[in-house]
Amino acid sequence: MFSLKNIVERKITEYVMFISTLGYTLFKVADRNIGDVFLTLLVLGFIIGLISNWKVLIQDKILWLFLLSLLSQILSWFHGIYFTPYTPSFFSLSPLANLFYFFILAYWLKGNAYYIFSTLTAYCLGVILACILHSNAPVDEFLLGLTGQRVDFGITNANHTAALAGSSILASIFMIYFFIKEFRIYLRTWYGISYVSFLAIISVINLLLVYMTFSRSIWLALFCVLVILIFYVFFRNVSFNMKFLVKIIVVLISSFLLIYSLLQVPQINSRVFEEHEVIAGLLEKEPDEIASSSVGLRVKFWYSSFDWIKEYPILGLGDRNARAFVIQKSPYLTQAVKDEFQHLHNGYIEILISYGLLGLFVVLGIFFIVFKNVFMMKSMYRNYVIWGAIAFSSYYYVINIFESFFMFKTGEYIQTVFLGCIYSLYLSRTLNNKKDK
Questions:
Q1: Residue-level pLDDT at 240
Q2: Which parts of the sequence belong to the O-antigen ligase-related domain (predicted)?
């Protein structure tokens, strides 16, 4: 008998959705039009799946949080119109709603390790493909980057290129580690060696991209990931045997030597320390006295936001264009800066300005629910998923301090792919268990 449930559960549907996942992951940034075609297929497929399995799916708190995201944006819109001096001009449910695309990816990946690895591999390739397609002369730009010039390959700006490359490094290193730990036997085969070598090459390319973009926020984020993972491993181990302590010491010494060596590169050293005087003077100067450098402008943007956040803390000003309004009203910025910049360079502040604490509750609630469910999950791969969740969230939280990735397509893409892969195993097991009951 024909039914929507039969369509969703057919293998051909699963394969079509898997191919669509790869298409979205590979092309979303490289060629947005192609990527959106695959995303549309994923969304339509999920809607059919939701209709046919709504009694099971609706029990997931992520979907309830999604409904809250819609409500919060509607409330913020009306609040902005009637209770603030700002008049919202951009009514859209997509800024917060789009952050839930990861649930659709998680649903179609079905907790399948092959699907997840393929998706992460497609992501790594997609980052490189985006650099090739967006740049007018990718080879020349790559060579220019090797000489110490800052490049961005035509992807919004260098910070966005670096954010994509940095997350690709996390993905490729994670896959190499997982493959060596769980599928070591395949390293005796040509295809196993080829795959690990391929991932290693991708890691090197993306490390070079992170270097070429000279994005200090991404360097800091990757450093924080390393530190947090070391602490997680250290405090998670309860035996503290000699073998474990030797490993920790080796990792710490290696990390120190790596960071010290990197700081000896003149371009990196200059980029890291070039604004130390600006940073040192932040606590002593008034906002309008701070130099309009890269760091200084960010601090001025943030200062410009604080009074608005204090005045309208719960629902914000009403839409994502409120960030430009705040910049235009700032007493700390010159007109030239106001004409050049349209966002506040901080994802958390932009959410607060646009949608208030209710909006920020939605955004952070996503990660809280994912973390809670992943930590409680029973699976032989649980520890790997937790590692991935800690690494990605640490990275993503840090980069949002200095750029508004929550509100940009780049951040939406990164969050969709990584949270989709992280949440897939839990979601798949939960849905299967509830169906059996």
A1: 57
A2: 202-363
Rounded to 10 degrees, the C-alpha dihedral 231/167/416/367 comes to: 20
pLDDT of residue 228: 85
pLDDT digits (tens, 9 = 90+) for 281-332: 666 777 776 777 778 888 889 999 999 999 999 999 999 999 999 999 998 8
Length of the chain: 437
Buried b (16+ CB within 10 A) or exposed e, 359-390: bbbbbebbbebbeebbeebeeeeeebbbbbbb
Cα 137 to Cα 135: distance, rounded to the nearest angstrom: 5
**Tokens representing residue 14 in the block:** 């699963």
Axis-axis angle for helices 242-263, 216-236 (nearest 10) = 170
CB 418 within 8 A of CB 107: no
Q: Render pLDDT for 387-419 as a digit per residue (tens, 0 to 9).
A: 999 999 999 999 999 999 999 999 999 999 999
For residue 343, give the H/E element and its range: none
Across 96-151, the runs of DSSP E, i.e. the strands, are none
Q: Which of 320, 29, 23 lies closest to 152, judged by CA?
A: 29
pTM higher than 0.70: yes
| Structure-token pair, residue 337 | 């800066």
How does DSSP classify residue 86? S
In the chain, % of residues over pLDDT 90 = 59
Q: What is the end-to-end Cα distance of the chain in Å, rounded?
A: 23
Burial class (CB in 10 A: 0-12, 13-18, 19+), 69: buried
**For the residues of 368-414, what is the DSSP string, one character each?**
HHHHHHHHH---TTHHHHHHHHHHHHHHHHHHHHHS-GGGSHHHHHH
| Alpha helices for 214-334 (secondary structure H) | 216-236, 242-263, 266-273, 276-280, 294-311, 322-329
Looking at 62-105, which runs of residues are DSSP E strands? none
